[in-house]
Amino acid sequence: MSGEHIDEVSDVSTTGHEWDGIKELNNPLPRWWVITFYVTIVWAIGYTIAYPAWPMLSSATRGVLVYSSRHDVKNELEAAEVAKGKYVAALQAKTVFEIAADDVLRGFAIAAGGAAFKVNCVQCHGSGAQGSKGFPNLNDDDWLWGGKAEQIQQTITHGIRFASDSDTRLSEMPAFGDIITPEQIRQVSAYVSSLSGAVGDQALVIPGANVFAENCAACHGDKAKGNTELGAPDLTDAIWLYGARETAIAAQVRAPKQGVMPAWGGRLGEVTVKELAVYVHSLGGGE
Amino acid sequence: MRDKTQTEPPEAEAIDSPNTREPLYAPRKKVFPKRISGNFRRFKWLVMAITLAIYYLTPWLRWDRGPFAPDQAVLIDLANRRFYFFFIEIWPQEFYYVAGLLVMAGIGLFLITSTVGRAWCGYTCPQTVWVDLFLVVERAIEGDRNARIKLDAGSWTARKLVLRVSRHAIWLAIAAATGGAWIFYFADAPSLIDELFAGTAAPVAYITIGVLTATTYTFGGLMREQVCTYMCPWPRIQAATLDENSLTVTYNDWRGEPRSRHAKKALAAGQPVGDCVDCNACVAVCPMGIDIRDGQQLECITCALCIDACDGVMNKLGKDRGLISYATLSDYNANMAAATAGGACSVNPSLVRTDGSAFSNRLAHFHVRKIFRPRTFVYMSAWSAVGLALLYSLLTRDRLEVNVLHDRNPQFVTLSDGSIRNGYTVKLLNMIPEPRTIVVTMQGLADAEMSVVGIDMPADRSLSVPVEPDRLKMLKIFVRQPAEQINAQAQTFKFRVEDKASLESDEYTATFNAPEIVR
């Protein structure tokens, strides 16, 4: 390429580059653009001095502002903790009953308890606390161990049948398959099923009442209304942890399944447990 | 000086004149608009005074709304998500009113442009108004066009330095006042101004002032006509909204050409002579730095100052005013055809005059009737339709609302007695600045009853709750229906809310879910 070439159409000099007959025009950049470009270069240099940037052997330069996004997160978390401080202190000092009676504290506890529930409880009780077979529904008004806020707090703190907590809620229904005959199991299952409205075979139901009085009434009560002191379920209501069908009841009489709930007091701390208790109590079944 | 215009026209050339048109990216050519007086200039002063007064004074107007709402007539309360405009209060979900106003503004712009051209650009656009204001300062300090050109070309003396520094200082002060006035729309103006000067206002207030000061100073002082030419999309759109019946600032070549600086000599030589004496007054006053005689062009904001300039010259020469005038393209074309004998020859002004001085009565003139044509009727009806719809909606809107969210997880809960319970988040919106007591009632759903989390009350089909002024109250309501009454998996019923004092009410149709088999 020799000499300057001027494009005939636009009267502008070209760079001398040519691709398949297409030449690149050599238009000047606007001055503001060039200035802006130089400013960005200067800015970039300043930026790498101010902030962590240049790679070194083992790490990178820290920058004169000593900025760190991890540090920012830590500060934000600390600020959030401080902001929560007065509520947490109030929750610490008050009983769950007092917390539930206070509009502001209840709102805070329900929000915090809801978050804690999503992390710690949904694995068994479900994301809507609706439970499933063997895992109690926490929305309803049927409570094995009591539905008052204090009772819920006690259950969460110490768990159920949780061996490593000495205060855990403990009950054990014997496996009646070893104690009574299969015929008696059929009879008592029919009787229990009839208590909540099912129309059963009267030939089984009537002798079943006797079997119940002799073997079951001690824990479940004469009227089968259950006993929250012992964790004995109410057998007359519409809620069945292991199923409502006669066969399901019979299976539970023969060799009962016994669920275990861990003690959360040590792991979550008193305040979080209180929050959880208030939250669960607010789900609609609290007493 | 004025007499000289006839004999010794100032050197002035349009910045986009084809003779000197530079390639793209050439540095800006400075424009030094000359001061002019006349009818359009007076109108522009008036518009400038009114628009600036509206902008600066509006936040200081008061409007009593009672003790539970701010008393600022126009307030955009972002923190509380409320917008107040005199007697109107808008919640965020009512933003469609603002959208409707924007639609009206858009259609209005089409309507105005299709009738009187870019009147928005020429008179009311903030860019035009602020540039005008900045030019007032520039002229007051550095003098009129010639003095400014001389100063700009001259070397840096102490005098030039003082003039330049004071000009930019006053520009910056105006820019800061512009940014300063803006923030008062977003907070209580009287208390904000105290905080502002005490240094205790929110950082965003100072940042906003800073940003708007920078943009006002840059756009109004430094960039000026470049904002209209390069940054604004409107000049590109105007071509679609103008038609041959739109009034726009026009140089009437049919009476102006052939232009001549030495009319007497040319006449003596028997050549045709137009009214234009090529004095360049129209170019010298143009804030965009263009020559209107090159025809309608993208840069022209139709501020009509060239009309004032030309009319002044025509007056002095004893000729008819209106060599540059507001005219429609169809009139212009008709007159042009007359002056060129239907395109047979170049412009010959004698063809449009009867006896050498008076204009022929065959000339086309603008008639008010031309404003009313199908296009403007369509714009006007669309504009009025949107306006009436907004007005109707505003006058009939609810100030008490209920919104209901049905719990989905779980959808229903079976209780120990076999009854079914559903949960609802009920939101009561009290949209007036007064406290109210709202009665929430269930309609339908046989034998069902409500209970509310946090409110100690026996289960009932109705409850009354106090709601704070201008606030939303959220209730968690559980509805329970006995098993024997449940006749479908999904039943509908209504939450009705009512203010017993004003008798305002609203309803929400909700669904009650039950399992497939209810024992």
Automatic annotation (TrEMBL), chain A:
Its cofactor is heme c. Keywords: Cell inner membrane, Cell membrane, Electron transport, Heme, Hydrogen ion transport, Ion transport, Iron, Membrane, Metal-binding, Oxidoreductase, Repeat, Respiratory chain, Transmembrane, Transmembrane helix, Transport. GO terms for molecular function: electron transfer activity; heme binding; iron ion binding; oxidoreductase activity. Heme c 2 binds at residues 173, 216, 219-220. The keyword Nuclease does not apply. The keyword Lyase does not apply. GO terms for biological process: oxidative phosphorylation; proton transmembrane transport. Binds 2 heme C groups per subunit. It is found in: Cell inner membrane. InterPro entries: CcoP_N, CcoP_N_sf, Cyt_c-like_dom, Cyt_c-like_dom_sf, Cyt_C_IC, Cyt_c_oxidase_cbb3_su3, Cytochrome_c_Oxidase_Subunit. Heme c 1 binds at residues 121, 124-125, 261. It comes from the Bacteria. Belongs to the CcoP / FixP family. Component of the cbb3-type cytochrome c oxidase at least composed of FixN, FixO, FixQ and FixP. C-type cytochrome. Part of the cbb3-type cytochrome c oxidase complex. FixP subunit is required for transferring electrons from donor cytochrome c via its heme groups to FixO subunit. From there, electrons are shuttled to the catalytic binuclear center of FixN subunit where oxygen reduction takes place. The complex also functions as a proton pump. This is Cbb3-type cytochrome c oxidase subunit. It comes from Mesorhizobium prunaredense. The lineage of its organism: Bacteria, Pseudomonadati, Pseudomonadota, Alphaproteobacteria, Hyphomicrobiales.
TrEMBL record, chain B:
One of its GO terms (molecular function) is metal ion binding. One of its GO terms (cellular component) is plasma membrane. Pfam families: Fer4_18, Fer4_5, FixG_C. Keywords: 4Fe-4S, Electron transport, Iron, Iron-sulfur, Membrane, Metal-binding, Transmembrane, Transmembrane helix, Transport. Residues 1-21 are annotated as: Disordered. Gene3D superfamilies: Alpha-helical ferredoxin, Immunoglobulins. The chain crosses the membrane at residues 43-61, 95-112, 169-187, 199-219, 377-395. Residues 265-295 form the 4Fe-4S ferredoxin-type domain. This is Nitrogen fixation protein FixG. It comes from Mesorhizobium prunaredense.
